[in-house]
Amino acid sequence: MSVATTPAAHHTLSVLVENKSGVLARVVNLFSRRGYNIFSLAVAPTYDDRFSRITVVVDVDSAPLEQITKQLDKLINVVSITELPPSASLERELLVATVKLDAAADRATIVAAIAAAGGQVLAETATRLTTSLEAAPPTVDAFEDQLATFGITDLTRTGRVALRQLDGASVATA
């Protein structure tokens, strides 16, 4: 079953932190200690190796957004926190899934569905096919739902990554 698109009770935060050992653990421990629910979490170094960006989608039903950001801001290795509203940001997620193959006709149908969604086939055997799709979270949700009709045997999703949209830029729809 796919994860629903970000409801109003979820907010995406882009947290720029020092790229040092233990920083992610301190951020996650803060969420755990305070009882804040993390809907999605992704972290990686930025273009500058001194910093990493943590993209966290938080459930504001567990605590007000202002309280979450104030607590994060108290952590010494946090450089900046930016809320990324969906209307002003670009979000992407990666899905990798393996589905069952029952017959040649089934393979053709699955491959056509993958191509139509903008995904790609990564590997296949006579009985299984592994595919991936990188897209906006609602597109990934729909793709996962479509793959479920074929029989998913394994699946992973990265969690959301996001950046603020460029002012005046045209945006790809995938």
List keywords for this structure.
174 residues; disordered N terminus; 39% strand; Alpha-Beta Plaits; 2 domains; elongated; alpha+beta
Question: How is the topology of this model organized?
Answer:
Elements: E1 10-18, H1 23-34, E2 37-45, E3 51-59, H2 65-74, E4 78-83, E5 89-100, H3 104-117, E6 120-124, E7 128-135, H4 137-148, E8 152-157, E9 161-164
Antiparallel strand pairs: 1-3, 1-4, 2-3, 5-7, 5-8, 5-9, 6-7
Helix pairs in contact: 3-4
Characterization of the model:
- With 174 residues, the protein is α+β, with helices and mostly antiparallel strands.
- It folds into 2 domains: 74 residues, ACT domain (Alpha-Beta Plaits), CATH 3.30.70.260; 75 residues, Alpha-Beta Plaits (2-Layer Sandwich).
- It is built from 4 helices and 9 strands; from the N terminus they run βαββαββαββαββ.
- Strands 5, 6, 7, 8 and 9 form a 5-stranded antiparallel sheet that branches. Strands 2-3-1-4 form a 4-stranded antiparallel sheet, with helices on one face.
- A hairpin with a 3-residue loop joins β6 and β7.
- The radius of gyration is 18 Å and the shape is elongated.
- The two termini are 21 Å apart.
